[in-house]
Design a protein that fits this description.
This protein is mainly beta and about 400 residues long. Helices cover about 5% and strands about 40% of the residues.
C-alpha cells in the first residue's frame, strides 16, 4: 500500500511539474514613429510621471520640418506632442538625452539650438509650459548629450560632450535660481589624466560626490571620475583598451548597487571586443562582471544607462549582437552574478532596432523603452517588456 501511494505521489508530482507555467519576457510594440508631426529617432528612453503617463523625446522630426519633440504617452493611445523644436532655434533643437522627471516638471537638454547653436537646458511642465533655462556658449560647454541629474541640494547636474577651455567637454551645475556654474573643464592628456567628452548621466553617491564616465584617460580608452558639488575633481580609474578584460569606451552613466558600489558598461574592447559590464568601488577599484561577445545570447555594444530594480538585478540594453538589432538583458549583482538575455530584437526590424536609452521600470511591473530605428516606418519605436506565464503545450 505504501509503495502504491508513493508511486501515485511521484506520478502526480511529475504531472504538476509538466503543467507548471513557464515565465518569460514578452515584448509588446506600443508605437512606431513615422515622418509625421510626432517626431522620430528617440534616443533617450522614457520617464514615468506620478500620474502613470510616460514622457520622452525624439531627436529628429516634428511638425513643419521640426528638429525633435517632447511627447507624453499613455499605452493604448498615440503619443501627444508637448513641444516641437526647430533647427537653429534659440530655444533649442535636437534633444538627444532623456528627460529628468521631478513631480509635475520635466527637465532636459537639446544638443543644438540656443545662441550660438551649441545646446540648451530647458524645462517643461505637465501641461506643456516650456522655458529655456540656459544657452551653452562654448566656453561653458557645447553639445549636452548627457541626461540631467538632480542633486541632494536640489540643483541640476550635467555634462557637455564638447566645449570648455580645451573643447574636451565640461561638467556643470545649475541651481534653482538658474545660476549656471562650470564645475570642471576636461584637460588634454598632456596636462592630466582626467579623460574627455562625458556622455553619461552623473549619479550621486551617499558620500555626496557625483560619479561619472568619460572617454580619454591615461590610455585614451575611457575613465571613471568623481566630482564634488563644488567642483573638486578626481580621476578614479582609466581603462586600458585593446583586449583588456574590463573593456573600453564607457558612454553611459553608472548605477549603484545595494552596497554603494557602481556598475557600468563599456561599449567596446574586452576579450571578445563586444564591450563589458564592470563594477567599481567608490575608491576606484574595478572588476569584470560580464563580457559581451556579439552572439544572440550575450549581444554587444551596451548602449543605455543601467537601472537596478527591486529584485536587485541590473537591467540594460545592447545595440548589437546576432541577429543584429540589439537586446534587453538582466544581470545579477556581483562579479559572478547570472547574466540573462530577456529579449532579442528580430533582424526584420519589425519590433524595433537599436535600443539606446535607459529602460524605465514602471509601476505596472513592466519595462518600457525606445528603439532608435525599426518599427513599421523604420523611424523608431516605443516598446513594453513584461513577464508573462505560458504552459509548454500552449
Amino acid at each position: 500500500m505504501t509503495r502504491h501511494l508513493l508511486a501515485l505521489a511521484l506520478a502526480l508530482a511529475s504531472t504538476l511539474a509538466q503543467a507548471a507555467p513557464i515565465s518569460y519576457w514578452k515584448l509588446d510594440l506600443l508605437h512606431s514613429f513615422d515622418d509625421g508631426p510626432g517626431g522620430h529617432h528617440p534616443h533617450g528612453g522614457l520617464v514615468e510621471s506620478p500620474a502613470g503617463v510616460f514622457w520622452g523625446t525624439t531627436n529628429d522630426g516634428g511638425a513643419d520640418g521640426g528638429a525633435g519633440t517632447v511627447y507624453k504617452f499613455v499605452p493604448g493611445s498615440a503619443p501627444v506632442v508637448m513641444r516641437t523644436f526647430y533647427a537653429d532655434n534659440e530655444l533649442g533643437a535636437h534633444p538627444s538625452a532623456g528627460l529628468l522627471a521631478d513631480g509635475s516638471m520635466f527637465y532636459g537638454t537639446t544638443s543644438q539650438g540656443g545662441y550660438p547653436d551649441m545646446g540648451t537646458v530647458f524645462r517643461i511642465s505637465a501641461d506643456g509650459q516650456f522655458a529655456m533655462m540656459h544657452e551653452m556658449d562654448g566656453l561653458d560647454g557645447r553639445r549636452p548629450y548627457a541626461p540631467l541629474a538632480r542633486g541632494a541640494d536640489g540643483a541640476l547636474y550635467g555634462g557637455n560632450f564638447y566645449g570648455g577651455a580645451n573643447d574636451l567637454g565640461t561638467l556643470f551645475r545649475m541651481d534653482a535660481s538658474g545660476a549656471f556654474t562650470v564645475l570642471h573643464a576636461f584637460q588634454p592628456l598632456r596636462s592630466g589624466n582626467d579623460g574627455a567628452h562625458p556622455e553619461g548621466r552623473l549619479v550621486q553617491h551617499k558620500n555626496g560626490f557625483f560619479y561619472g564616465t568619460s572617454l580619454g584617460g591615461i590610455h585614451g580608452a575611457g575613465s571613471v571620475f568623481r566630482i564634488s558639488p563644488t567642483g573638486a575633481f578626481t580621476s578614479l580609474h582609466s581603462f586600458q583598451g585593446g583586449s583588456s578584460a574590463n573593456g573600453c569606451e564607457p558612454r553611459t552613466g553608472l548605477a549603484l548597487d545595494a552596497a554603494g558600489n557602481f556598475v557600468g558598461t563599456n561599449r567596446l574592447c574586452g576579450s571578445a571586443n563586444g564591450g563589458t559590464l564592470f563594477s567599481l568601488t567608490a575608491s576606484g577599484t574595478a572588476g569584470l562582471m560580464h563580457t559581451f561577445d556579439n552572439s544572440v545570447v550575450y549581444g554587444s555594444d551596451p548602449s543605455g544607462d543601467l537601472i537596478r530594480r527591486s529584485d536587485g538585478r541590473f537591467y540594460g540594453v545592447t545595440r548589437g549582437g546576432s541577429p543584429g538589432c540589439g537586446s534587453v538583458y538582466a544581470k545579477s549583482p556581483g562579479l559572478s552574478g547570472t547574466y540573462t538575455r530577456l529579449f532579442s530584437f528580430p533582424v526584420d526590424r519589425s519590433k524595433g532596432c537599436f535600443p539606446r536609452g535607459r529602460l524605465t521600470s514602471a509601476a505596472d511591473g513592466a519595462l518600457y523603452g525606445t528603439t532608435e530605428l525599426g518599427g513599421a516606418f523604420d523611424k523608431g519605436t516605443i516598446f513594453r517588456l513584461r513577464k508573462v506565464s505560458n504552459y509548454p503545450d500552449h
